[in-house]
Amino acid sequence: MKISIELVVLGLVSLPGAIAWGQLGHYTTAYVASYFVSNSTEAYLKDLLGNNDDDYLAGISTWADDFAHRDEGEYTGGWHYIDAHDHPESEDCNVDYKRDCKKDGCVISALVNMTELALNSQKSEEDRQFAVKMLVHFIGDLHQPLHNEDIAQGGTQLSVKWQGDEGKLHKVWDTLIPEKFTEHLHSSQNRRALEWAQELAGEISNGKFAAEKDSWLKDFDPSDSFKTVLKWSNEANDFVCDNVFIDNYEPSQIKGKELSKKDYYDQASSLVEKQIARAGYRMAAWLDEIARNNWHGQDNSEL
Ligand SMILES: *[C@@H]1O[C@H](CO)[C@@H](O)[C@H](O)[C@H]1NC(C)=O
Ligand SMILES: *[C@@H]1O[C@H](CO)[C@@H](O)[C@H](O)[C@H]1NC(C)=O
User: Fold this and answer.
1) In terms of CB atoms within 10 Å, which of 60, 83, 222, 284 comes out highest?
2) Is 113's C-beta closer than 6 angstroms to any atom of ligand 2?
3) 5-302 carries CATH number 1.10.575.10
4) Residue 152 beta carbon below 6 angstroms from any ligand 2 atom
5) How far is the CA of 113 from the centre of ligand 2 (A)?
């Protein structure tokens, strides 16, 4: 699909205070996905979501955050992450579903559950709409390493420095790295997301990610959403050991350190770039299966 910048910009609303990949990250993953879904998926989702514009996915990509902040949606607050009780301080990163998913759910159970709901033709259109809005958000969240980690509550309780100011490690990864990385683009978040997605779609199609994009789907198994999400969660969690807490920035050392410096920022931002691209590309594959009603063997027994 070709997205016209001019058409999109005006329709977008600014939603402050997102708890996960900031708005920039979520909009960008959603726009990347809209480049790669099939034409029939696009038509199906535009109809289901009641939005015929190019922002049909981006426009709903942060809705799950708003919902979690409302009383009626409070029960979904824990669906945005999984608190892996591993040990990054000893270079030991892993996600164990039984150990780590709370009773009220986590990003893994939520993705499986929402996939099942999106596919259930017995359910109302409103329910399936809800499910797709959740999926578009959670596939993004799943790719933020610190959404797959318990330490200091996913880094939300760990103070670091960013360009001289104090901030939390979680926010650095959610928002500040993506924003710095895209400084060369438009200053409005929405337009910036669209421009960034265009760049990333180019890198995926015939740029630096072209050779590896097929490998991004090697664990994608439409017969088993649970297994697929668990693999992707473990992959993102590995980056907690490899990219969040690097040498000299181990959990015991990172407090108060400046993270916008080259030695930390360069490796962190190239991972963020890849995770955003990968999340969008995988989201497209996931939504294609939903639109074709092609997930099979959905099995909630593992939850
Ligand atoms: C998808 O739609 C675009 C225009 O919206 C068209 O150019 C393209 O040929 C279509 N692709 C397929 C496979 O039908
Ligand atoms: C699945 O989603 C439904 C609808 O939102 C919710 O009531 C239920 O608690 C969820 N189940 C799990 C295991 O998360």
Assistant:
1) 284
2) yes
3) yes
4) no
5) 6
303 lines ligand 2 (CB under 6 A): yes
Determine contact, residues 106/82, Cβ cutoff 8 Å: yes
- Nearest-atom number in ligand 2 for the CA of 104 is 14
**Which atom, in ligand 2's list, is nearest to the CA of 76?**
5
Which pTM does this prediction carry? 0.92
CB 140 within 8 A of CB 283: yes
pLDDT in tens, 258-293: 999 999 999 999 999 999 999 999 999 999 999 987
Residue 287 main-chain phi, psi, to 5 deg? -70, -35
Measured in whole angstroms, how far is the alpha carbon of residue 114 from the centre of its chain? 15
Q: Which residues contact 143 (CB under 8 A, 6 or more apart)?
A: 21, 29, 232, 236, 275, 276, 278, 279, 282
Domain segments of the chain: what residues? 5-302
247 pLDDT more than 50 = yes
Instruction: Decide: helix, strand or coil at residue 299.
Output: coil
Nearest ligand to the CA atom of 2: 1
